[in-house]
Write a structure and sequence with these properties.
2 helices; elongated
């Protein structure tokens, strides 16, 4: 059988400050998260967010503990 774990995280900027106001910085951060996830064997299917938060949706398998992903 095949098991996949779906993880939806939400990370906020410190004090919910609008540090990601510039879309260029936001997309750079999204690209970094996607690249880092891939290097760890995690498929990040979607990354969204706004000026003060980021929320990736990722998939992993049972051999990788959830605490190592977050």
């Amino acid at each position: 059988s095949y098991v996949s774990i779906l993880i939806h995280c939400v990370w906020s900027t410190k004090d919910r400050a609008p540090l990601l106001k510039n879309p260029h910085y936001r997309y750079e951060l999204f690209a970094h998260i996607r690249k880092y996830s891939k290097s760890k064997g995690i498929l990040t299917d979607y990354i969204g967010g706004f000026t003060n938060h980021v929320h990736p949706v990722s998939y992993t398998h049972l051999t990788l503990p959830t605490k190592r992903i977050v």
